[in-house]
Amino acid sequence: MVAETDNQRTTPHRAGDAPPRTEGSILRQPRAVWAVAFASVIAFMGIGLVDPILPAISRSLEATQTQTSLLFTSYLLVTGLAMLVTSWVSSRIGAKRTLLLGLALIVVFAAAAGAAGDVESVIGFRAGWGLGNAFFISTALATIVGAASGGSSSAIVLYEASLGLGIATGPLMGGLLGSVSWRGPFFGTAVLMAVGFVTIATLLRSDTIARTAPVPLSAPFTALREPAILVLAFTALFYNIGFFALLAYTPFPLGLDEMGLGFTFFGWGLAVAVTSVFVAPVLTRRWRRTGVLWATLLLLAADLVAAGALISSTAGLITCVVLGGLLLGVLNTVLTESVMEASDLPRPVASSSYSAIRFLGGAAAPPAASALAAAVSPGAPMYAAAGSVVVAALIVLLGRRVLRRVDDGPEPAEVEAQAIALSQ
């Protein structure tokens, strides 16, 4: 979060990044910026939207818990893989067309998921939703910065606000509409994204955002040759197993109705948003990033162990979910911030390589957690997730030598804000 009061501060930038601009009022923005910000809120709602309706989908479509958890797997797997090509696509067709492509895909596949008659179809349509989300989210930040008036820092703060609002309200919207029908959240998303499509098509001019140089298709793959990027990517892979075990598995043992789950994960999303924006920057200004990473990872592992021990206590498990959200917000931001500073690569390229690997962990966790619960015990997935997070902490500790660069000094405020925006 941008905390400084120097309204004329500028920061250095590297190849592939937006040029530095002076700060201005967050509220004095063109309508095009507000249109993209609105669509960003809806896009980020998709992260937790299905949480409150997972048990309802399982009951209505006579699907197993493992099958239902694949709604997360298909979404995250396709989102991660698509991140490898989004820069290549947007650098050739332009930001506006990339945004509209992403929104159109979400509208089509969200509506199709709502109309589906079996769980296999919903899983497939969620994959298409993930593809649209990758195109939209990877382009929205650059678009807001390019179209904003008064400076990029205030525009980034607006994007952060959209991100936090979307993550927090997604589960609440899922619970409200899901209490009517499990199909409601899907149709609701399709309608809101259609509104976003029309507003962006109408208000955002193609010449508002400068075209970037074409990005080679091989760039994200080449980035993984950087030792620091590789260490951080595998840290995130094992960490994301814990993240999505907590997010995608706990709705089942909680045993709450749609509204109960909606409020629980609203608290989780609010915790993620608050610590990612306000707490993570404070911690990294006081301590080394690698120290913040391994210490917070160990705290998350302890929280997951507690969740496993309290798996049959609704109040205890809710507490662990919300406390986990506080830790997840810190980790998301600090990991992404570290990736952005770990090499001389353009930040979009480094971020796309890292995201592709980390989402693989998120994709594998939900069905693995459900299968483990059926085979061993309801608390077993949480213990396994805790073990995975400990592995992530060990990777950071053992890789400190190649991560020296990320500990070099405090992050310029504008770059820090970009890291927050890209971290979810």
Automatic annotation (TrEMBL):
Subcellular location: Cell membrane
Bilayer-crossing regions: 32-50, 70-91, 98-117, 129-149, 156-180, 186-206, 227-249, 261-284, 291-310, 316-335, 356-376, 382-399
Location of region: Disordered: 1-24
Membrane topology: Multi-pass membrane protein
SUPFAM superfamilies associated with the record: MFS general substrate transporter
Protein name (record): MFS transporter
Record bears the keyword Membrane: yes
Residues annotated as domain Major facilitator superfamily (MFS) profile: 32-404
InterPro entries reported in the protein's UniProt record: MFS (IPR011701), MFS_dom (IPR020846), MFS_trans_sf (IPR036259), Tet-R_TetA/multi-R_MdtG-like (IPR001958), YfmO-like (IPR053200)
Keyword set, alphabetical order: Membrane, Transmembrane, Transmembrane helix
Record has Transmembrane as a keyword: yes
